[in-house]
Amino acid sequence: MRIVRAKDYEDMSRKAAAIIAAQVTLKPDCVLGLATGSTPIGTYKNLVAAYEAGDLDFSQVKTYNLDEYRGLPGDHDQSYRYFMNVNLFDHVNIDKANTHVPDGLMEDYEAACAEYDEAVAAAGHQDLQLLGIGNNGHIGFNEPCDSFIKGTHCVDLTESTIQANSRLFDSIDDVPRQAYTMGIGTIMGAKSILVVANGDAKAQAVHDMCYGPIVPSCPASILQLHPNVVVVADEAALALCPAE
Ligand SMILES: N[C@@H]1[C@@H](O)[C@H](O)[C@@H](COP(=O)(O)O)O[C@@H]1O
């Protein structure tokens, strides 16, 4: 695991965007695994700016997002499909048919989740998977639990995640209680992984991800077993990590 120290959120966002831009430049038809949440918004802004400057071409890029709230349609302003459209896809020359977010309204969800994993594998797996991290160490919506769940599946969100994500909804009662998420195996199938984290609320989770025991009670800790992970984090998020 390589840790890249950023001065602040802007610096983290620029550094993370530069890594994704390098991937798209080196392999124009790459497969990107993408993430939502507040943390990657600045990364996406920098990618849009690079595209507008004529430095990036997304025309052959395929994307697979990590997760989606169960029950939210893609045009709901808190759905992750909507987030991706507004923060990235609407502003670059990506073919929307090449962008994939789990369908929050899927009916036979076990079959649909299995199809999502098959599609990621058929595309050749993610060349680069972008991840944020939850305050409790979750990645995607893989919440702390008793085992690492391999494939895309439906999860019950924890109270702490519902609480943390309620800031984006009108009221906490509006936050869906379940979500679909790529499993740990689907995430670990990526050829390279880029984790972004900022702020002191993430300090414990970042420490446990990088230095804690590899346990499903901190799902991000599994990333220690992946051969190609870069963590780009600001000083606050790295406050509990040893200076290297
Ligand atoms: N499912 C998403 C995660 O993918 C994200 O990493 C996490 C942290 O979000 P934020 O970046 O807003 O702190 O929030 C959500 O729960």
What would the principal axes of the Cα set say about the shape? globular
In the CATH hierarchy, the architecture is 3-Layer(aba) Sandwich
- Seen as an oligomer or otherwise, the chain set is single chain
What's the mean pLDDT score?
97
Task: Please give the order of strands in the largest beta sheet.
Answer: 1-10-9-6-2-3-5
CATH topology heading: Rossmann fold
- Termini separation (Å)? 12 Å
Largest sheet: 7 strands, parallel
Structural class: alpha/beta
Quick summary:
The chain has 244 residues and is of the alpha/beta class. The protein has helices at 9-26, 41-52, 80-87, 109-122, 159-165, 184-188, 203-211, and strands at 2-6, 31-34, 62-65, 67-69, 99-100, 128-131, 153-156, 178-181, 193-197, 229-234. The chain binds 2-amino-2-deoxy-6-O-phosphono-alpha-D-glucopyranose.
Describe this structure in words.
The structure is a single chain. Helix 1 crosses helix 2 (41-52). Helix 7 links the parallel strand 9 (193-197) and strand 10 (229-234). The protein has a single domain (2-196, 217-226), classed as Rossmann fold. The chain is built from seven helices and ten strands. It is of the alpha/beta class. It is globular. The strands form two sheets. It has a seven-stranded parallel β-sheet, with helices on one face. Strands 4-8-7 form a three-stranded antiparallel β-sheet. It has helices at 9-26, 41-52, 80-87, 109-122, 159-165, 184-188, 203-211, and strands spanning 2-6, 31-34, 62-65, 67-69, 99-100, 128-131, 153-156, 178-181, 193-197, 229-234. It starts with a strand and ends in a 10-residue tail after the last strand. The structure holds 2-amino-2-deoxy-6-O-phosphono-alpha-D-glucopyranose. 2-amino-2-deoxy-6-O-phosphono-alpha-D-glucopyranose binds next to helix 5. It holds the Pfam family Glucosamine_iso. It catalyses: alpha-D-glucosamine 6-phosphate + H2O = beta-D-fructose 6-phosphate + NH4(+). Its EC number is 3.5.99.6.
